Amino acid sequence: MPRLTEFFFLTSNDHKIEEARAAVSQYNIEISKFEEFKKLEIQHVDLEEIANTALAQIIQKTDKPVFVEDSGLFIHHLNGFPGPYSSYVFETLGVEGVLKLMEEAKTRKAEFRSSVAFGMNGKWLATFSSATEGTIQPKSRGTNGFGFDPIFIPMWTSKTFAEMELKEKTVYSHRAKAISKLALWYLNESKKNLDLKPKETETEAI
Ligand code: ITT
């Protein structure tokens, strides 16, 4: 039985850690919160650019297999706002402020997007992105999760993310999809390329 591979996730958001763990639980990959450094968060319209820039800074300081994730809610009626500014908008306008901006909306379509950048042994290795389409509800529903979860219903369901248990959110989540892409890519690549075996951790090739 191969030992677990350990990935370090640099984030200040513990909900993201829980979601990442749920997303990779079937792949024999363990997610640890990377506490050693602070994440650099640049302002940019492109989530991949934000994630890649944060990763570039961190891989200079560690050889561990590390990743960062940047995400946002893109609302059609608001031309993609708050998008890459979601964290700031959540802290300032909040969920109710965003619902106010939606009062006259002809379309309630929106999508969550996620970009994950991964590196190891001082090198950038890969970036993956995913999106989950859905709609913005007129009222908040549910208490689970974080951020805009109470107002977002992913396509093909009738529950908001905040009404779902973690396992159910993981089926639909933009973040779970992007992190699963990373896990599958890693498992495939690490069979071919022994350099992908972490130097600092006691893991075996899978
Ligand atoms: P780190 O940067 O430290 O990882 P963060 O919460 O600040 O944590 P982001 O910069 O990626 O993360 O900000 C994304 C924001 O978008 C987040 O604060 C939420 O308001 C919103 N968001 C992203 N994914 C979400 C999700 O799955 N559910 C609810 N809101 C989400």
Tell me about this structure.
The longest helix is centred in the C-terminal third of the chain and has 19 residues, at 174-192. Helices cover 32% and strands 25% of the residues. It is α/β, with parallel strands linked by helices and 206 residues long. It has one domain (6-205): Maf protein. The radius of gyration is 17 Å and the shape is globular. Helix 1 packs across helix 6 (174-192). The structure holds inosine 5'-triphosphate (ITT). Inosine 5'-triphosphate binds next to strand 3 and helix 3.
SSE layout:
Blueprint lengths: L4 E5 L4 H11 L4 E5 L13 H13 L6 E10 L6 E2 L2 H7 L1 H8 L7 E12 L2 E14 L15 E3 L11 H7 L1 H19 L14
Parallel strand pairs: 1-2, 1-3
Antiparallel strand pairs: 3-4, 3-5, 5-6, 6-7
Short description:
By secondary structure, this protein is an alpha/beta fold. The protein has six helices and seven strands; from the N terminus they run βαβαββααβββαα.
Features:
Maf protein; 6 helices; seven-stranded mixed beta sheet; binds inosine 5'-triphosphate; disordered C terminus; 206 residues; 25% strand; alpha/beta; 7 strands
